[in-house]
Amino acid sequence: MAAGKKVKNVAEKAKGKVKETTGEAVGSESLEAKGVREQVAGDAKQTVQKAKDTLKH
Questions:
Q1: Which of 55, 54, 18 minimizes the C-alpha distance to 35?
Q2: pLDDT for 22-42, tens place per residue?
Q3: What is the DSSP string of 16-35?
Q4: Cβ distance 35 to 23 under 8 Å?
Q5: Contacts (Cβ under 8 Å, ≥6 apart) of 50
Q6: Residue 14 has what DSSP assignment?
Q7: Can you tell me the distance from the alpha carbon of 50 to that of 1, in angstroms, rounded to the nearest whole number?
Q8: At what angle do helices 3-26 and 29-56 cross, to 10 degrees?
Q9: Is the pLDDT score of 43 beyond 90?
């Protein structure tokens, strides 16, 4: 996996986790949901990158 893309995906997941946790703490369901969506997006992007890397080898 390209190092830059890996870092971006991990950062997206981390940012999503922060938003989810903050949403839970302040009682904001929309912020919490946005955080979960960002985490899912980061996971999906990582999966795609790993599949691409696997196909290259």
A1: 18
A2: 999 999 999 999 999 999 999
A3: HHHHHHHHHHHT-HHHHHHH
A4: yes
A5: 1
A6: H
A7: 6
A8: 160
A9: yes
pTM score, whole prediction: 0.82
Q: Look at the block and give the residue holding tokens 């302040």.
A: 26
Could you tell me the two tokens for 9?
């995906």
The token pair that represents 47 in the structure block? 């999966």
Q: Amino acid identity, residue 51?
A: A
Length of the chain: 57
pLDDT-derived band of residue 4, with 50, 70 and 90 as boundaries?
A: confident
How many angstroms separate the Cα of 49 from the Cα of each of 12, 26, 36, 37?
14, 34, 20, 18
